[in-house]
Amino acid sequence: MSTHPGRPNRSLFGRGSWPEVRRVGDILRTETVGGVLLLAAAILALAWANSPWGDAYRELGATRLGPAALHLDLSLGQWAADGLLAIFFFVAGLELKREFVAGDLRDPRRAALPVAAAIGGMTVPALIYVGFNAGPDGDLAGWAIPTATDIAFALAVLGVISTHLPAAMRTFLLTLAVVDDLIAILIIALFYTGSLQPIPLVLALLPLALFGYLVRRRVRSWWLLLPLAALTWGLVHASGIHATVAGVLLAFTVPVIRRAEGPGPGLAEHFEHRFRPLSAGIAVPVFAFFAAGVSVGGAGGLGTTLTDPVALGVAVGLVAGKAIGVSGATWLVQRFTRARLAEGLSWWDVVGLALLAGVGFTVSLLIGELAFGSGTERDEHTKIGVLLGSLAAALLATVVLRARNRHYQRVREIEERDTDADGVPDAYEEVPDRQD
Buried b vs exposed e over 335-357: b needs ≥16 C-beta within 10 Å? Predict the structure, then answer.
């Protein structure tokens, strides 16, 4: 019962509104397909890199394309990391802005849980990594590698194990990933920028400003926007800041609120609808193909890799760090706000989601390359640590979440029941759960 008569109980993992749940469902379906493609690309890369034709895989990734005069004679692997992932970060930026302007994160009470969980899920893995690498044999440059959650990979795991998470848990997972992406963007921009070149950075503001002006005027013409976006990306790349940050900056200029005249979505939603399939279906899987192809028998063998504090810090950070950080932060929010878990959920569900958040891949591999340099021994060890940590987190999450799957199915049946056939489930026609 509520301790305040006349006021609804405050709850963590509240169900939310039907439009928000439906939007989240559409996003997660796209990301799940992308996650399956990502898994397939990673498996193909691993198989090829460890086959008798492994040299051909490495030669393919090292093939250079682009105009040298513009300092864009990059390898295919670099084009995947710097170019294609800019699309991924553009979509992440659109989702970030939408959440802060019109989504759950605009309400401090609803934002408290995913923000705290994301911060906890970043801090504890980083501390674990530092603990493993504080000695003379370690390397602290990779402290941020185990801090990232790969939502596509995590959803692919859910798809494979065929679990039926309730709407509140799915919404929390996506919002956690959105905040996680924001932290990753800040980390890349602040801690993994090389020698900063101020002139290209200042020049990048010109096409960025023009892009922002056009989208504010609701211009959608690709032949105007795409060259400006490419020029912004090229100048940010030349400035020394990682080029994917350009994708976020471009996304932040796009208006979220629906246009005043006539029906239809806002421009941010329109762009997200267009670019999310490209990001999930092409950009991220191609990056995974070039980034995940580590030779397991190389760099001194698997035994040597597993004794490297870098690989150990990454793997343990992803598994134990994420589980402790996310579930611990959730407990602290519950403790200090006196909120309760929503009806039908238990702390086992929180632990399951926290373990699932330990599935890190895309951004973890990217930060590993930025920290140690692509193709170096420590980068190879990082990749193995990310793969092993993500696999262990996925398996542990599978055990916890599958054990609760029958309960989840019953909750989902209640959530999807629509007795009056009006297109809105009955549960969302009632007063939505409050969440602090």
Answer: eebebebbebbeeebbbbbbbbb
Whether the pLDDT of residue 143 is over 90: the answer is yes
Q: Does the CA dihedral 108-111-115-117 come out positive or negative?
A: positive
Indicate the domain borders of the chain.
11-192+242-416+426-435
Enclosing H/E stretch for 11: strand 10-12
Buried b (16+ CB within 10 A) or exposed e, 81-115: bbbbbbbbbbbbbbbbbbbbebbbbeeeebbbbbb
Residue 5, pLDDT score? 43
Q: Amino acid letter at 142?
A: G
Q: Strand pairing partners for 341?
A: 12
Total Cβ atoms within 10 A of residue 2: 10
pTM exceeds 0.85, yes or no:
yes
Q: Tokens representing 171?
A: 């919404």
- Give the pLDDT of residue 335: 87
User: How does pLDDT run across 322-334, given as a tens digit for each residue?
Assistant: 999 999 999 999 8
Q: How far is CA 288 from the centre of its chain?
A: 14
Rounded mean pLDDT, 231-248 = 92
- Among 378, 324, 357, smallest CA distance to 128 is for 324
Q: Which of 429, 307, 350, 423 is nearest to 121 (CA)?
A: 350
CA pair distance 233, 242, nearest whole angstrom: 9
Residue 436 to residue 194: CA distance in whole angstroms: 40
Contact 153, 31 (CB under 8 A): no
Distance, in Å, from the CA atom of 403 to the CA atom of 287, rounded to the nearest integer, reads: 34
Query: What CATH code would you report for 11-192+242-416+426-435?
Result: 1.20.1530.10
Phi, psi dihedral angles at 434 (to 5 degrees): -85, 150
Single out the residue of 302, 27, 26, 66 nearest to residue 178, CA to CA. Answer: 27
